[in-house]
Amino acid sequence: MFLGFWNTFQGYYATRKASFINNVTSQRVKWIEQLRQDISAFAGLTHTWCNSELEGKPEETEVLKELDRLRHVIRLRLNPGGEHDKKITALIKLIPTLTHISKRDELHIALEDLTSTTQQLLKEEWEKVKSESKDGDLRTGRKCR
User: Fold this and answer.
1) pLDDT at position 117 over 90
2) What gap in Å lies between CA 114 and CA 71, rounded to an integer?
């Protein structure tokens, strides 16, 4: 009787834990993809806007609105305590100040830095996803960011 109860309890616990881990892992994968999309859109729009003749045209307003939206949504997706996250946040703040034609070289360097830093962050997060799904432990390899 006790053994049956114990087995039922362990089965219930294991099912709940697996469901929780699957949910967290799924949400992390969605977060990775959304951040990738937002950063690429921000970098692409910034590059396009700076190298096009949009200034003063009606399309300029829409591009600038989207850039502003992306700047804020990207920052909201990041952990304010994470190393890569802090660098991405600083670059997101810096890049709009480099859009003048006299600062194009600095802009290209900053956009490249944004891309490479984001790649590092996404790689770390992907490794966490793989570890979580393999080991079933959300604490594996986790550092407080």
Assistant:
1) yes
2) 12
